[in-house]
Amino acid sequence: MPKRLLLVDDEPAIIKGLKFSLERDGYEIDAAYDGEEAIQMFNERQYDLVVLDVMLPKLDGLTVLQRIREKSTVPVIMLTAKGEDMDRILGLEYGADDYLTKPFNILELKARIKAVFRRAGNTQNDQQVVQVKNMTINLANRSVTIDGKDVSLTAKEFDLLHLFATNPGKVYSRENLLEIIWKYDYLGDVRTVDVHIRRLREKIERNPSQPEFIFTKWGVGYYFANK
Questions:
Q1: Which of 9, 102, 140, 186 could disulfide-link to 53, CB 3.0 to 4.6 Å?
Q2: Domain 4-122, CATH homologous superfamily name and number
């Protein structure tokens, strides 16, 4: 069954080009040109992924993302202008999974879309449950609980936690994490990894400055506590 994508951008030329190219790859495409229309369409149909511009009329993209996250963990790729604060866009309060800075290459967007679906496919049949201290990670339904309480993670945050928890003690550099989690030659800043790690720590650690789960090996990268 074809994947259905929602494209949200107020520039008709961008929508037209993306729609033409993605439909040729077999995706079903819906398009919205402002934030209110995007939310209405999202509420009316089921989507496998959303490509969402930050700067939109009526409701901005970050507000749309917040509304989506209130009811869904569907992957969201943000389109941003240069100079946007990626800490905010990728942060705890918004929960974007990835971003592209305009202008971008359609081939890069396609690669990121495929990477999202590949990650989801790799975890569909995984029934393993990982228990680490007071944390339970269910790899089948991609859920996390700490002391029995649900922890809400974005897709990228869960992928990072999954990788760390199933490879305790192994140190990963930022470049390693970009290659493993993003699944392709990532063209962005390795700062993206630091942003995701910081937000993940804020969700799972009692005190992020004194972590129990995800540790930093200075000058090298990150690693997970041994069970």
A1: 9
A2: Response regulator (3.40.50.2300)
Residue indicated by tokens 């507000």: 63
Torsion sign, CA atoms 85, 15, 112, 49 = positive
Q: Vertex 172, ends 166 and 176: CA angle to 5°?
A: 110
Per-residue pLDDT tens over the stretch 104-159: 889 999 988 987 777 655 544 444 788 888 999 887 678 899 998 999 998 889 98
Which pTM value belongs to this model? Answer: 0.60
DSSP structural state of residue 203: H
CATH of 129-224 among 3.40.50.720, 1.10.10.10, 3.40.50.980, 2.40.320.10: 1.10.10.10
Exposed, middle or buried by CB within 10 Å (0-12, 13-18, 19+), for 195?
A: middle
